[in-house]
Predict the 3D structure of the following.
Amino acid sequence: MRAVVRRTVWICRKVWHGFGIFCAVMFIPAFAGLMIFGIIDGIKRDEQEERDRQARLASVPSAAPTTRTPINWTYEGAVCADGTLSFSIGKQGACSHHGGVAGRWTADDGTQVICRNSPPRTQEQVDRQVSKFGRIVC
């Protein structure tokens, strides 16, 4: 009885070992094939996405070149951001309840703005801001 059991176990081990080798041998080319086709598919997909992107860019009409009309601003001095005059500008806490310190700028055409940063440099920027916000934003 022991001989039969030993022989059966030996046969099962050989079959299992053979099955393992078979699986390993078949797995390597199958895995390599999947990797190759996956990479090729990815490359094709990337190429198609690039072609689609180029087609979208080609279909967008290019903007006509715009001439830029510069605006010459003159710095008139510091005021509070809400336009309030303060004699403490230059000291800590000046205009703290009025939005902080800003600069008053005057354009050559007489337009005046109060900006915490520099005002827009071109007339096209001013037109864009006025159409979008209803005022000059700076």
Summary: The chain has a mean pLDDT of 80. Residues 2-59 form the longest helix (58 residues).
